[in-house]
Amino acid sequence: MNQVHGQMTEGEEVVSIFRMSAAALLSLGTIVTSASAAVIFDGTLYYTTFAGGENVWRVGVTYNDAPNTLTVGASVNLASTPGADGIVINPKPNPDNPDRLLVGGQANGQVHNVKIDGTGFTSTNANTDNVFHLAVINVGAGVLNLMSTGIPGTLVKYSIAANGDLSPGIVIPVMTPTGAALDITQVIQTPAGFFYTASDNLGVGSLGTLAFNGTFTSAVATEVFGDIPGAHGGLYDPFTNSIIIVGDGEIRQYDLTLTLVSQLLEAAFPGGGSPNPNEDHFDQAAVDGKGLLFVANNDGRLFFVDYRASGLVGGPGNFLNQQFLKEDLDDIAPIIVVGRTELPEPANLALIALSLTLFIVAWRGRSVRRRRTPFGG
Q: Measured between alpha carbons, how far is 221 from 207 in angstroms, rounded to an integer?
């Protein structure tokens, strides 16, 4: 399985709490003094399954790089919500220790606010039937919104209150430059603006730019690539200043001009084929911001890429791993939590990297998401 927000192992001496002032991203971690330690990550991953019943989960995971070993613990159920697909960590009220998960309710038209201790959840109406993929975006001045989409489907915006509660959803019309309505699958925020994917659960579709008006009440989607694999789940990777999209057994990495810089096929991973070929689709991904990538496959497998050295998801020498996690696996939650400040400048990231030459950053993680269509979405 894979790894998430790192957490210090017992006996490590804490030097300080490291925060990437980095972020409309808040990726949390601690700097430790054991520079030779083999443990790169030790934390919790949050995820969803799409078949109903118990469908929101957490699992402990550890990644060592000497030798490269990925260890996954036993999954713990957190909730049985009316539908579960996309999943993100609720960034409020306490972004340093998020205590709730936001979960897309699939075709029931709700977003669920799930307590991570498994003690319950509340639900908010989306004002649309299809609530699958989710993304938290920073619209400026400390204002955070949740965005939900179908697969593909209607784009919906929710305000996130200071206490982490959601307002009812407001539909945002998405049009092409010619004025035609467009359904989309994923919203991706980057320092260069917004991007989108549009595909069904199989993951072949379009990738392009998404331009909101000043009040985030409408958007224009401009297709750059059509009919490509990987155009389903997606995210911004601050480690490489690129976007990574997944779907249809392929992982693709684009720079912020949407130039393809790397790609990785499912067939490149060791460990054999799918346990359930009918649901063999990459759905959603998460990065830790330090060169680790996690990808959820609807057939139950979790895929892992350590690209710290190459900076490319398909680069030479990357460590690749796949492990069966849970039947009907849907989505995993982002590890990087959209926070309250600006996205990091590349220069700031370089200074941060220099300051960490003698330290290992262990990150505390989170992850979850997916849906049912018949398969996840």
A: 9
